[in-house]
Structures are given as C-alpha cells and as structure tokens.
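quick q for whoever's on today - can somebody do inverse folding on this one?? i tried earlier but teh output was garbage lol. tokens:
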C-alpha cells in the first residue's frame, strides 16, 4: 500500500509516492511561474493543474509496481480559485489571499464574472478544492477545516460556513466547497482525468508554513494512511 502526496503552492508542485511506513518510493518537483499583482501573488490555475499532472505522472511511473492506492493533497491555505463547474476552466488567475477579500474584489471590479458566481455557474475554492475538482472531473467540490479556516468565512468554533459572514460579504454559500473531514475518504479520482488512477482522496491538509517540504509530505501521507 502506498500514498501519492501532492504538495502545491506558489513554488510549484511536489509529488511523492510513500509507502505505509512513510519511506519514499519516488518524488519530483515541477515549478510554476507565479506573478505579482497589486502586492499579491497570483497563479494560472491551468498551469498548476498541468504541473500537478506532470509531477503525478512522473512519480506514479517511477513507483513501478508500487502503484499508489490513495491520494493526499496539501496546499497553501490562503488562496482563492474560481472555475467553471462544467468545463473546469478558470476565468481568472488564482490569488494567494483570503477568499472573502478576493471575492469582494471580484464583485466590485469584475461584475460579469461575479454574476456567474451568483448564478452558480462558477465554483469557488482554494487550491485543494480546485485540484480535487480537476482530479474528479468536477464531481467533488470539497475542502476541509484546515483550509476553510483561512477563508474568513468559517463559523467560529464550528465546522460550517458562517451564514452571517457570507451574507455580509455577499457570498452565496452554494458557491463554496462542501466541508469534509481532513482525513478519510473525501473524494475519488477519475481514471480518465488523473494519470490513470481511480483511487480515494483520503487527506486534505493545509500546508504548515513552518514545516520543510519533506515534513509536509510525511505529515500528509501519515494522515492519509491513518
């Protein structure tokens, strides 16, 4: 048994296959090119997805017979992505900033984009939600509390979105991801979409900024296998 861990952020995507004992079978890193706009880092979601596929394919091929039977995703929690629920294409760059702040900016400056959020055509989420959507052909729109806590929209002390915060910000709750446990079966990848793997996603965990990349991989793999 082994876990494919995807660690994604503005520095790119690190992928690794780790055995149940947390020894590393194969690992790789693929860079992405962030840009700075108005003092914030931005990423092209399609670039992040392509980097994810490239990194995942390398380590799955490198693992040989130790094909992973689960996936763990760990990403920068302070990020906001919008994407089309049907095509999975994104109308704008992902912004490395709190969701409540990014959506306020979109509502004020991009009315056509915002109208599609309100109508339910566009989904909103973090990097983890976007990657899960791409891996599952849009079947799953999910996040966990470790990521949701950074959005500015999570209810204090509760595992639910704050209706008051959403109402105040004008954010439709239906545009936000379903809140799922940090570990356990939270989604299932589609073989057609994700390097031939049809396996459960068993961990979504926000990056620990104090941890080294190696430690992030180990922590996510341990949680996925628990």
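ok took a stab at it. sequence:
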């Amino acid at each position: 048994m082994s876990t494919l861990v995807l660690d994604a952020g503005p520095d790119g995507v690190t992928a690794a296959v780790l055995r149940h004992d947390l020894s590393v079978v194969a690992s790789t890193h693929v860079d992405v090119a962030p840009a700075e706009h108005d003092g914030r880092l931005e990423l092209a979601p399609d670039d992040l997805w392509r980097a994810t596929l490239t990194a995942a394919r390398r380590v799955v091929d490198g693992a040989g017979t130790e094909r992973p039977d689960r996936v763990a995703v760990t990403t920068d929690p302070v990020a906001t992505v919008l994407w089309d629920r049907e095509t999975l294409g994104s109308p704008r760059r992902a912004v490395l900033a709190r969701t409540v702040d990014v959506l306020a900016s979109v509502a004020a400056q991009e009315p056509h984009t915002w109208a599609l959020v309100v109508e339910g055509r566009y989904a909103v989420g973090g990097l983890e939600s976007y990657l899960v959507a791409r891996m599952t052909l849009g079947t799953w729109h999910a996040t966990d509390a470790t990521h949701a806590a950074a959005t500015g929209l999570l209810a204090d002390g509760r595992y639910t979105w704050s209706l008051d915060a959403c109402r105040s910000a004008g954010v439709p709750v239906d545009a936000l991801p379903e809140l799922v446990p940090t570990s356990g079966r939270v989604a299932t990848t589609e073989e057609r979409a994700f390097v031939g793997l049809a396996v459960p996603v068993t961990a979504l965990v926000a990056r620990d900024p104090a941890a080294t990349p190696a430690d992030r991989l180990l922590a996510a793999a341990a949680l996925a296998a628990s």
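fwiw The CA atoms of residues 99 and 151 lie 5 Å apart. also The first helix runs from residue 45 to 63. so keep that in mind when u check it
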